[in-house]
Design a protein that fits this description.
Blueprint lengths: L8 H15 L4 H6 L2 E2 L2 E8 L10 E6 L6 E9 L5 E10 L1 E2 L10 H4 L3
Antiparallel strand pairs: 1-6, 2-5, 3-4, 4-5
Family: Belongs to the 4-hydroxybenzoyl-CoA thioesterase family.
Protein name: Thioesterase superfamily protein
GO molecular function, one term: fatty acyl-CoA hydrolase activity
Length: 113
Amino acid sequence: MGVVHHGNYAQYLEIARIDWLEKIGISYKSMEKNGIMLPVYEMNFKFKKSAFFDDQLKIFTSLRQRPDVKIIFDYKIYNQDGELLTTANTVLVFMDAKTRRPIRCPDYVLEKL
C-alpha cells in the first residue's frame, strides 16, 4: 500500500508533545519525579491526505489554552512538500501519581507557558 498506517500517528503526536514540553523546559521524567502523571484522556484525528513511506513529516504542536486540570494540544502534520496531511488534538489530564486522582496544573508548568 505504501501509506503510513493510521496507528502510527499516536506515537508521532507523543514525540511532538514531548519535544514541545522539553523546549519550554519540562520533561515527563521531572514530572514523574514530582509525583505527577499526564495520561492521554482523548485523541482526535482528521486525515486529509495520506502520508507515504519515506515522506519527511513535520509536526507543528501548539497549546490550545492555558491548562487547568487538562492540557489540550493541537497538531498539524505536513509532508516535505508543505501539504497539510493531518490535523489532530490531544487532551491530557494532570494526575497525582499516588492517588491517581486529577489535580490542577502545577505552578512550575504554568510559569513556563
